[in-house]
């Protein structure tokens, strides 16, 4: 393990200095596209201003015989588009796959200056992050990059979940973690074939009524991802990086998608993936605080003055702790409003600088 003194030193001579803090930028929606799919690539000029993060996916979801076309297509997308305020990320193939190394060797020299974050799938432990950390430093130095590329890990194996703390702590490049529910389900030998979301069999049932033993007993579906997501959130917050829910594969079920995203938002996640254009506005809506919550937060913050003591607001007790909860909502609302005039108007907060 590196000592605290050299943790932030570049890992190759000439590489940019790694960040001390992960810069906050909106990332409510990470929109996936396949750069080998010309129909999808043609849609990007219209999608880039709508999403917080555009992610070129080179890993699962891209056919094996299209891997090189996808890598080359991503270079063309980077060269042919102005991303403005939108972040540009890539999901490379895993480092044990036949393509992972060449993804990095090609993309960093070709488009490293435009890449904000590299998403690394199937991360098992700190050793995977140490590997990519050193390799990125070498490639950045060779390419003369002045800004370090950040790393985002997908948590999608049982071992990765077990090692979540050390993954978050492994490098100052660590930007965040996403949940990969499909791979994680397979690795854990869970018996769901869905890509994220609930399962009708994962439920609790109301107790029998002794006076009506034959009456129908209500059932309540549970969230099979709750444990992992909560663990991820704690690990990310402890290490100053950002937690994300991952994919929701039932594209047609926009209602359940919104519910799953909201569960993640309420637990502390900052965003989710969109796999299809229909999921973009769902993620943006869910991961932006609701107007009524922003209004409530303002009211409590105003009522609490210097933030200490206890007061009653609308019949509820508010104190030093609850005002902190309200500041979390208000802080997110302010950051989003500063970049989005519509949200600024809805929240009654300062909007983007003219
Ligand atoms: C899911 C899809 C295969 C659906 O595609 P399609 O059948 O073409 O849908 P539509 O006909 O409704 O599409 C309408 C038009 O929109 C374009 N389109 C579709 N998706 C996208 C997109 N993501 N970005 C841009 N444009 C998109 C279509 O081309 C249609 O265009 P047109 O015909 O001109 O009108 C498809 O959406 C898709 O492949 N999505 C991405 C899937 C993906 O990225 N999968 C990997 C991530 S999830 C994962 O890996 C699991 C995770 O790691 C884990 O372990 O849990
Ligand atoms: Mg996966």
Automatic annotation (TrEMBL):
Which superkingdom does the taxonomy of this entry point to? Bacteria
Q: Name one GO molecular function term.
A: (S)-citramalyl-CoA lyase activity
| UniProt: substrate binding residues | 91, 156
Keywords per UniProt: Lyase, Magnesium, Metal-binding
Descriptive protein name = Malyl-CoA/beta-methylmalyl-CoA/citramalyl-CoA lyase
Q: Is Glycoprotein among this UniProt entry's keywords?
A: no
Organism field = Frankia canadensis
Record gene name: mcl
Q: Lyase: is it a keyword of this entry?
A: yes
């Amino acid at each position: 393990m590196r000592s605290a003194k050299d943790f932030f030193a570049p890992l190759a001579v000439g590489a940019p200095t790694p960040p001390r803090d992960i810069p906050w930028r909106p990332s409510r929606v990470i929109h996936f596209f396949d750069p080998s799919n010309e129909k999808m690539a043609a849609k990007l000029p219209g999608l880039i201003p709508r999403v917080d993060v555009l992610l070129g996916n080179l890993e699962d979801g891209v056919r094996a015989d299209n891997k090189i076309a996808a890598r080359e297509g991503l270079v063309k997308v980077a060269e042919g588009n102005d991303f403005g305020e939108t972040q540009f990320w890539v999901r490379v193939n895993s480092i044990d796959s036949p393509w992972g190394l060449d993804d990095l060797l090609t993309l960093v020299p070709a488009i490293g200056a435009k890449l904000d974050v590299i998403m690394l799938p199937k991360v098992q432990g700190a050793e995977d992050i140490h590997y990519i950390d050193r390799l990125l430093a070498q490639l950045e130095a060779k390419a003369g990059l002045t800004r370090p590329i950040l790393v985002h890990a997908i948590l999608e194996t049982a071992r990765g979940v077990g090692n979540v703390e050390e993954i978050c702590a492994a490098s100052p490049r660590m930007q965040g973690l996403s949940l990969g529910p499909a791979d994680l389900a397979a690795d854990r030998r869970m018996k769901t074939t869905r890509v994220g979301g609930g399962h009708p069999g994962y439920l609790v049932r109301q107790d029998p009524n002794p006076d009506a033993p034959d009456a129908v007993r209500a059932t309540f579906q549970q969230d099979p991802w709750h444990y992992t997501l909560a663990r991820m959130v704690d690990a990310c917050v402890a290490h100053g990086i950002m937690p994300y829910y991952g994919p929701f594969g039932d594209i047609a079920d926009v209602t359940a998608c919104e519910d799953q995203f909201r569960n993640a938002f309420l637990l502390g996640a900052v965003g989710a993936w969109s796999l299809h254009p229909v999921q973009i506005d769902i993620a943006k809506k869910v991961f932006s605080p609701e107007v009524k919550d922003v209004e409530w937060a303002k009211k409590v913050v105003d009522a609490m003055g210097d933030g200490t003591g206890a007061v009653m607001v609308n019949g509820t007790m508010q104190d030093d702790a609850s005002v902190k909860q309200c500041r979390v909502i208000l802080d997110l609302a302010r950051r989003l409003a500063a970049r989005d005039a519509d949200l600024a108007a809805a929240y009654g907060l300062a909007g983007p600088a003219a």
